[in-house]
Amino acid sequence: MKLVIVGGVAAGATAAARARRLDENAEITIIEKGPYVSFANCGLPYRLSGDIQKRSALILQTPEGFYSRYRVNVLLKTEVIAIDRDAKSVKLRSCEGESSLPYDALILAQGGIPLVPPVDGADSPNVFNLWTVPDMDAINNYIKDNNASYAVVVGGGFIGLETAEAFIKRGIATSIVELTDQLMPPADPEFGAFIAQAFESAGASVYIKRSLSKIDYEAREVVLSDGSRVKADLVLMSAGVRPNLELAKSANLVIGKSGGLQVDEYLKTSDPSIFAAGDMIEITRRADGAKVRIPLAGPANRQGRIAATNALGGAMTYVGALGTSVFKAMEHTFAQTGLSEKAAIAAGHKVRAVHVHKGHHASYYPGAKDLAVKLIYSEDGLVLGAQAFGLEGVEKRIDVLAVAIAAKMKLSDLAELDLAYAPPYSSANDPLQMAAFAAQNDLSGYSPFISPGKAAALLAAQPDAVYWLDVRTFGDYCRGHIAGSVNIPLDEIRDRISELPREKEIVIISVNGFEGHLALRILKQSGFEKVVYVTGGMKSLRLFGGFSEIVEE
Asked: What are the pLDDT digits (tens) for 149-166?
């Protein structure tokens, strides 16, 4: 059995190791275009920051090590330039010239290629990508040799923000430029705002809804689409990644509608002898069954394992991915799984979303940190997605929700989960359960809410359309409130209920939503029918902005 694997990083290296465990006699060859095999590309920003002190820690395996342990042949600095599907061979090009290599089964694991916007000056010597170990080395050397003090990061996704954090940690004044209206575009807007606040608090400048127009190397500046000039000793291009499909296209393999290489549930391409894994393929999004690309390291590794199994005659199926991810935003953590609210809406789903702000552990135990959780669910109560942001306990909750979505759990299931509790770790009712309770109350009509996004839009467009009731304390109200809102603190509602209009819709604003729920239940039981509260309260509402807020000194 001759197995050839094109690409030697996450999916490819995993496939090779799995194949050897399955078949001790197979002839396995990895072909890698770059100078390294099996390196930790997710760790590159953390080596730049100094968190990972040894460069060698990123090199997970060498050609010699691969051969010694797995008897896998690794060809570095070698490119596959063509696939002859009829002859079952690949054409190779290296410094030694061109050659061919036969296969019985072929696995494509070429990943993606960074996008470089067509910007004047993009070929300047101070412009870099961060995709490989040589990329990392080049950035490190440039910073040291040129005493770089100012950096501009183009793109506010995972790699861009992780590298921005690395620059900030090294004392480099950093600006982040993002074309869309928020950082971390896959997230919902309020979490993009959370992330922006975290970076701005660390000293970064954030420019959203702007693009790069020019890189002025001589002046060590960049020019943005609005004419702004920003100091830039170095520029990191991180504007996105496209799947590496040139080889697949030249072999006439079918490309999916999402732009990734089409594979079936066995990760088999349109050629029964060719399998594929990693960032280059189109997969099933488990939350709703849509065909999408999810370029993440976790799914890539698992796909490599399955592709190798099936290339050697197995029948292991791949069910898809949720897109579960976690990101370190300076001192904070952001994580998500399944569908975001905007992704669900874009896909045509009718969904609801609840916001909860609660301590990551019991409030009376020292060190409780605020945790923001957003839960996305269908109108029949099926959990579809979640996002969370905070200082501690974030990824724990998102991992639980990833399991919930994979298991097709409903809000009722989530509400009754038996989660670990002790005051240093959680509350008797975990933030996830509080979110489930609130969502159940909304769907049943017991305690309906309005999303902070819709409330912010209503405030900006029609501030007089409803009666805005602020039930926070007078002190909180004085520190900032909606223009035209009326302050009746929660504890005074019962005594002042005659002041409220029964003929007008009432929208309740509270600190974080919970007090709004309490106020709503008082009003509902007093005969008020047209009343909702803002889920997430003022904490979430402020993340949207665009409306008039009065701040009293």
From this structure: 999 999 999 999 999 999
* Tokens found for residue 425: 């770790």
Q: Report angle CA 542, 543, 547 to the nearest 5 degrees.
A: 50
CATH code: domain of residue 357: 3.30.390.30
455 plus 546 within the same structural domain? yes
What is the chain's mean pLDDT, rounded? 96
Buried b (16+ CB within 10 A) or exposed e, 53-75: eeeeebeebebeebeeebebbbb
Q: Provide the whole-model pTM.
A: 0.95
Q: Give me the amino acid identity at 480.
A: G
Is 74 inside a domain boundary?
yes
CA distance 32 to 7: 5
- Tell whether 88 is covered by a domain: yes
pLDDT band at 546; cut points 50, 70, 90: confident
Residue 95 designated active-site: no
**Same domain, yes or no, for 140 and 106?**
no
Catalytic residue from among 1, 22, 40, 42: 42
Q: Inform me whether the pLDDT recorded for 138 exceeds 60.
A: yes
Task: Name the residue range of residue 207's domain.
Answer: 127-236
